[in-house]
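Lecture 7 notes. Example A: sequence first, then its structure tokens.
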Amino acid sequence: MPFLWKKPNTQKRERKNGKEAQALIDASVLKKNNISRLTIDERWTRLFVNLPMSPAIEKAQNEMNELIKKEAMLLQEQESLEPRKKKVMNRIISLTKDAFDNNDEAAKSELRDCRKEIERINERMEKILEDIEKVNNELKEANIRLLNESVRYVFSTLRSNRERAETITRELERIRQKEQELQEELDSINLDWTSYAVQFTELLGSDLVKTLESQYGLEGLKHETDNSGTDAKN
């Protein structure tokens, strides 16, 4: 994914002072990929469907969401000022004739108030524009921070998981090999006691064989004894 990196020589991960270098993602990446509000971008949220967010990513996410809320409040206020300003302007037009043609003092007083109100609205609208621009800049920085942190975290996690999976695979292979070796050893020592029991019974008699079985902890082994062994012959 070369588009993620700022310079070609930063595509390889480097370690400096024991710490992994951060991914270098700048504003050009945001513009190229149409990224404006990362926390509400499905392309980003899908990254964490099966992967839990790190504390750093959660913190960056919350900070961006606060900026998005602030921006929405400013835009809402901006929209509310437009009809308010238009209403006052219409009132000024309607008062002008009475104030100047008819020399109406009340109309003049209200006209002055309306003009002051227009000034306040204009000042507030200018301040809102400044605040919106400031929030947009902060959002851009927040996008860059969050995207860099997400890339570092997800790619590092994927690499760690892959390394762990390789370790587990090797361990499972070692266990399978050990199991095979143990099975082969088991097969080599798994003697058929039945045939030996019959032979010893013929040689020594069933009573002595049973006594020997008890002494050597071999009771319960299934075997066929021939009661017509040595004892019967004697």
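Example B, a different protein, same format:
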Amino acid sequence: MGRTDENEEPHAGSPESEEMLPLYDESTPFTASEELKAPDPKATPDEVRDYLVQAMQRRGVGIDHARRIAACWTIGNGQELRAYPVQMYRDIFGAGDAWVVYKAVKGQIYREENEKDPNYRLGMLCFSLALLALAAGGAAIGVFVASVVLETIGWVVALFGGIFGVVAFFASFEDRNPDKKAESELKAGWVMTPASGGNS
């Protein structure tokens, strides 16, 4: 009476059904000391899944849960991982995991971009000062040159040089913290769905 038929399908949530989840073994073993890099745009789905397992482990997620998260990524390559917006991450990984996955992936990508261009802030500041100097020169031409044509050109240069110079100046002080940037994107793109008994 208490015996279960061997051919009976395990019900959802049972230990047997947990064992049937599409887990896999990483192609390369995880070493905590090695530097983790975001997948190349041409990375295969398997390589993306390997990366996701390692990225989740580095955030303190257990290996089994990390593999379940990675198993949600089925056919996309590295470019899709880099390009997908917040809502796509939520559709793929579910509301419960998508926030952490997106922040880990995008934060890593932005961190690598910052490393490739460490002098971004200095470059933007110099560029803004050059534009403002150009604007000042244009204004001087507009004020001191008698020619109507040169005066017009000078004021146009002053106007556009001033606008773009100010924009570039403020851009040079942009907060380039990769985790904060990823979190801001999450807050802006997280579409809340009506509660239906699950996560939202």
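Note on Example B: Confidence is low (pLDDT under 50) at residues 1-33, 193-200. The first helix runs from residue 15 to 19.
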